[in-house]
Design brief:
699 residues; Aconitase, domain 3; 7-stranded mixed beta barrel; alpha/beta; Aconitase, domain 4; 5-stranded parallel beta sheet; 3 domains
Length: 699
């Protein structure tokens, strides 16, 4: 669990009254570090500003038996790949990019905090049985291409919801040309197409990575079970029979991709990118180039950056755009420090940031532009929703591979194509970049020294249960960042009548739109305070504005927080209406907790993203689906809405929605849902956590 989601997960676990967790677990402090200047200063500031949160997480880990990774130890998914993930393991993580571990042949699934609590207390964790997309990789990647381009291309084909309800399994001879960390990049960004997870077969490349990270004993065990860590021969011989879908990608003809802006599935091949930028009239000048995030911060990634900057130095080129770089872990940082990479990065003026998420999740304090300036950035991250990186709605964020980001930083322009264009060096001569060299392995002695010792920043859960009882997890009642949770009320066993429409969201409404990150991360442990950001990024379908909705009590338009507080004071019951793939993006369960706290009983959408739909169910909100998507258009701004047949709620049952329009007319239509028997019980008892407590208390 990362520190932003672990707060609420542990607050929920504490409600179970158990004295210890029932399976291995860890907390990683990577989300709360604000990128501003450099690693040293930013990390120092984070430890001061977030001391209350870090102390809470550490005390909870010590008391209940979780590993704790201190700030600066690294990004959760890179740390997991280096230390925990092994072939054949099942991992759940409270972060949507947990499938990063699929690169090492783990089944790794991103979940909400309440799902994690199921596992921590020893209850069954359930998941709708996914289908399988088989992606057949042929050939080997050409120069300038990287594993990132495979998933960027695939995102363009599948779109942000095309992988929903599927595991993506990669197979074919092309797989074996990819490194373990390259596969992790692909698995990581499978979250951007909605996939449950992604997985690669175990082979020599994976075993080499496990061995290089000083876990040869694990590699030896994995070899003994190699047959179950790859697709069966029958599947490889007849993939169309066994997979629900098959997608073919020829790596030898693949070219680099750049995706964006505003959506990670907006894929454009590099050869067409300059035309695309000019046609759309996007800013051509690049204001910042950023490398890192959980998607591309491995040693292999940074070695390709080093290769291009080495060329640039020889060819007398300088950066024309500021370059920001975040190593994935302290181990990666130590490697690039000892083998000279860091020296070259600093010679080029690179801002080397803490081993943390930073700008990728909006933890970036920019001083190079004014607020709301129109600008373009390019990065090796995974998501590029509006406002995500820097809070600026006018920042056009483009996602690509580390080598393309580096090349673009040397040019300063989105019109540059390093595969064919030249740059003018300091001698006024035209020079051309060559593709980056393959990553040379770091010296074995260095890897043994770094990976063979106890990881820096790890506080292990090695005390017995009796010793752990002495630890106290305290929360100040005056804290603005932490707040003990109160149980949500159980369903009243009545239909929902006279629901007020909080908002009818138009178009893309991600968990970032529902519960923004950035400066709001500081309130992730305080439900009342963070609920003030509910849906402030969502577009109101009735006026195409954000944070601007109708208040039926004042008959005026106001910010959502003010209107929602009005409803809460009046104890009004609410409904939210969403568009397609409502709740895509991160796993943050605050996007479900906040509406529940503010009185939302129902969320109705054309379709849901998997994790968010589950999170709504876990918190006792009824997620409903339009049967006829055109009924979305029938809902008017001042409607009062009834949801009938809730008293007859069963798996696969249909409910009736009645719209009472402002002019006195009514309209009704049927809606459906995906709750199974257990999930129906969550709803009836008020939340999954309520059901867990009731089950444990009666055991």
């Amino acid at each position: 669990m990362q520190d932003a989601t672990a707060q609420m997960a542990l607050l929920q676990f504490m409600q179970s009254k158990l004295s210890t967790i029932t399976l291995p677990a860890s907390v990683h402090c990577d989300h709360l570090i604000l990128a501003k200047r450099n690693a040293l200063l930013d990390l120092s500031n984070a430890k001061t500003q977030n001391k209350e949160i870090y102390d809470f997480l550490l005390s909870a880990c010590r008391k209940y038996g979780l590993d704790f990774w201190e700030p600066g130890a690294g990004i959760i998914h890179q740390v997991t790949l280096e230390n925990y993930a092994i072939p054949g393991m099942m991992i759940i993580g409270t972060d949507s990019h947990t499938p990063n571990a699929g690169g090492i042949c783990s089944i790794a699934v991103g979940v909400g905090g309440a799902d994690a609590v199921d596992a921590l207390v020893g209850m069954p964790w359930e998941l709708l049985m996914p289908k399988i997309i088989g992606v057949h990789l042929k050939g080997t990647v050409s120069p300038w291409c990287s594993p990132k381009d495979i998933i960027l291309k695939l995102a363009g084909e599948l779109t942000v919801k095309g992988g929903t309800g599927y595991i993506i399994e990669y197979f074919g001879e092309g797989v074996h040309s990819l490194s373990c960390t390259g596969r992790a990049t692909i698995g990581n960004m499978g979250a951007e197409v909605g996939a449950t997870t992604s997985i690669f077969p175990m082979d020599d490349n994976i075993l080499e990575y496990i061995t290089l990270t000083e876990r040869k004993h694990v590699a030896d065990i994995a070899v003994k079970h190699a047959e179950i860590c790859k697709a069966d021969d029958e599947v490889l011989q007849n993939p169309h029979y066994y997979y629900d879908k098959v997608i073919n990608i020829d790596l030898s003809t693949l070219e680099p991709y750049i995706n964006g802006p505003y959506s990670p599935d907006r894929a454009t091949p590099l050869s067409d990118f300059a035309r695309f930028i000019q046609a759309e009239k996007y800013p051509e000048h690049i204001s910042a180039a950023l490398i890192g995030s959980c998607t591309n911060s491995s040693y292999e990634d940074l070695s390709r950056v080093y290769s291009l900057l080495t060329q640039a130095k020889k060819k007398k080129l300088a950066l024309r755009t500021p370059l920001w770089l975040s190593p994935g872990s302290e181990n990666i940082y130590q490697i690039i420090k000892h083998n000279g990479y860091l020296t070259l990065f600093e010679q080029f003026g690179t801002h080397v940031l803490a081993n943390a998420c930073g700008p990728c999740i909006g933890q970036w304090k920019r001083s190079d532009i004014n607020e709301n300036d129109t600008n373009s950035i390019i990065n090796s991250f995974n998501r590029n929703f509006a406002k995500r990186a820097d809070g600026n709605p006018n920042t056009h964020s483009f996602v690509s591979s580390p080598e393309i980001v580096t090349a673009m930083a040397l040019s300063g322009s989105l019109l540059f194509n390093p595969m064919k264009d030249s740059l003018i060096n300091s001698d006024k001569e035209p020079v051309q970049l060559s593709p980056p060299d393959a990553a040379p392995p770091a010296p074995r002695e260095l890897l043994h020294t770094i990976f063979g010792s106890k990881p820096k920043g790890l506080i292990t859960a090695n005390e017995d249960e009796i010793a752990r009882k002495k630890h106290i997890v305290s929360i100040s009642p005056d804290s603005e960042r932490l707040q003990e949770l109160q149980p949500f009320e159980a369903w009243t066993q009545k239909n929902f009548t006279q629901l007020y429409l909080l908002i009818k969201a138009k178009g893309k409404c991600t968990t970032d739109h529902i519960s923004m990150a950035g400066p709001w991360l500081r309130y992730r442990g305080h439900l009342e305070n963070i609920s003030k950001n509910l849906l402030i990024g969502a577009v109101n379908a009735f006026n195409d504005k954000t944070n601007h909705i109708y208040n039926p009590f004042t008959h005026t338009y106001q910010e959502i927080e003010l209107v929602a507080q009005h409803y809460k004071i009046q104890k009004s019951n609410l409904i939210i209406v969403g568009d397609e793939n409502y709740g895509e993006g991160s796993s943050r369960e605050h996007a479900a907790l906040e509406p529940r706290f503010m009185g939302v009983k129902v969320v109705l959408a054309k379709s849901f993203a998997r994790i968010h739909e589950t999170n709504l169910k876990k918190q006792g909100i009824l997620p409903l689906l339009f049967i006829d998507p055109t009924d979305y258009d029938r809902i008017q701004e001042r409607d009062s809405i009834d949801v009938l047949r809730v008293t007859e709620l069963l798996p696969q049952s249909r409910l009736e929605l009645v719209l009472h329009h402002d002019n006195g007319s009514t309209h009704s239509f049927e809606v459906t849902h995906t709750l199974n028997a257990t999930q129906t019980e969550w709803f009836k008892q008020g939340s999954a956590l309520n059901m867990i407590k009731n089950t444990l208390s009666s055991a």
